[in-house]
Structure formats: C-alpha cells, structure tokens
From TrEMBL:
InterPro entries for the chain: CO_DH_flav_C, CO_DH_flav_C_dom_sf, Diverse_Substr_Oxidored, FAD-bd_PCMH, FAD-bd_PCMH-like_sf, FAD-bd_PCMH_sub1, FAD-bd_PCMH_sub2, Mopterin_DH_FAD-bd
Keywords: FAD, Flavoprotein, Oxidoreductase
Keyword Oxidoreductase: yes
Protein name: Xanthine dehydrogenase family protein subunit M
Domain spans labelled FAD-binding PCMH-type: 1-168
Organism: Rhodoferax mekongensis
C-alpha cells in the first residue's frame, strides 16, 4: 500500500469539500482498501466517512424507507423497520458477502461503486429508489451508467437512499462461490406502477429486463416468466460462466422469485 493522508470529516459539508479537492472518500472500504493494498489504486488523500453521524440510520418516511449512506449491511439486514416494510431488501442485505463484509460494508459505498455483480443496485433499481446526494436527488433509472460508473458528479456524495415500499418483492441470488458476489441476481418487485425486474451480475452494470417486466405485468405467473426468451448477446462471459449460462440463470432466478412471491 502506498502512503496517503487520512482525513476524518465530521460533517457532510467537510467531506464534500475534501472530495471536491480530489480526496477519495472511504465508506466501507470493501473495494477501495483491497485495491490500495494491491497497489492498484494510489490516492494521495483519503477521507473516512465513518465519523459522520448524519449518514447513518434507518427510518420510515410516509410510504418509503430511508436508509443513510453509511448504514452497514448488517444493520439493514437486522432492522425491524426494513423487515416489516421491505423484507426482500433485508434478506438481500443478510446475504451479501460474509459476516466481516456485512459488518463493514455500507449501502452508499456499494451503490456508488456500481460493481457489475453487487447486490444492492438490483434492489435500488427494482424498487424505483431515489438516491439523495449532497447536491440533488437522482432517480434509480438515471443513476447506474455502466461498469463502476454512475451519474454522480466528481466530488458528489450519496447521503441516503429512499426505497418506496412495494406491494411485495424478493431477491434471488446465484452466488459465485469464492467471492459471494452474484453470478446472477434477480430482484422482482410488484410496485404501485407495476412489476419491475432488475438483474445484476449478468451485464456491464445492473439493468432492468423489459421483456420479463412486460410478461409479468400481463400475467404474474411462473409460466409467464419462463416463456420470456433471454437474449445472451450482450451478457457477460468469463471464467465463471458463459453468456448463455447467465441468460438461463436470469430466467430460472426470475421464475424462482415469482414462485416465492406467490407462496
């Protein structure tokens, strides 16, 4: 690891000022610290956000659950508020990585990183969440741009994410055994505006599947999901799985999600 300066801001304003000046912000550090240890990343200065109390917490506001950006995966998984309102989100958080990752990783860090196989982005997109930053609010459909790329401006910080409470939702994940990232993960949500299906692990970043959404909005059945042909032409292919295999997993995991929601 290269030498660097560590800053410990106590407010969002202090952190934003540091970030605007080129300081890299540290949330849970599950990606950043690993890349620094391998000397793949060399930030000259790092701002640790863990001391900013206003970025932590879970609360219900109207028909939404609002979660602070620095809230740990473990706290989302164990939250009675989240379990009651969006059990699919609590279950997703409970199966991210291992115990150590869940104890350190944060909601905001995961979403801002936009890892192609991260779990949280699928919930953000499927539930039609709103990402709150120190500058504005960004709709989930506008947030994820590509691999490790989001709509965040340089120095812009996520402060919280607001999740509308769905009628029902569930996340089905097929693990990559070593990393426990999603080889393919599918989040299915029945919302007031219809069914939304978000897929992670299969593309350059999380994405909604229009074909599955159209079919399930017409008929919310396992058979309806199974009848949708999944195009593999733009899906990921690597040492873990071919694009065709990932396409099949999208179909299978969606069918399992629908079956679980139907009881």
């Amino acid at each position: 690891m290269y030498a660097f300066t560590l800053e410990r801001p106590s407010t969002v304003q202090e952190a934003a000022a540091l970030a605007a000046g080129g300081t890299k912000v540290l949330a849970g550090g599950q990606t950043m610290l690993a890349s620094m240890k391998l000397r793949l990343s060399q930030p000259g200065a790092v701002a640790d956000l863990s001391g900013i109390k206003e970025l932590v917490g879970i609360k219900r506001e109207g028909n939404a659950i609002v979660i602070g950006a620095m809230t740990r995966h473990l706290d989302v998984a164990n939250s009675a508020e989240v379990k009651a309102a969006i059990p699919g989100l609590a279950d997703l958080a409970a199966h991210i990585g291992d115990k150590q990752v869940r104890a350190m990783g944060t909601l905001g860090g995961s979403v801002a990183n936009s890892d192609p196989a991260a779990c949280y982005p699928s919930a953000v997109l499927a539930l039609g969440a709103t990402i709150h930053t120190n500058k504005r609010k960004i709709a989930a459909d506008d947030f994820f741009v590509g691999m490790f790329t989001t709509a965040l401006d340089e120095g812009e910080l996520i402060t919280a994410i607001s999740f509308p409470i769905p009628k029902r939702s569930v996340y089905m994940k097929f693990n990559q055994p070593a990393s426990r990232f999603a080889l393919v993960g599918v989040y299915v949500a029945q919302t007031d505006s219809g069914v939304r299906v978000a897929v992670t692990g299969a593309g350059q970043c999380v994405f909604r599947h229009a074909g599955l959404e159209a079919a399930l909005n017409q008929s919310f059945t396992v058979a309806s999901a199974a009848a949708v042909k999944i195009d593999a032409s733009e899906l990921n292919a690597d040492i873990h799985a071919t694009a065709a295999y990932r396409a099949n997993l999208i179909s299978v995991q969606t069918q399992r999600a629908v079956a679980k929601l139907l009881g």
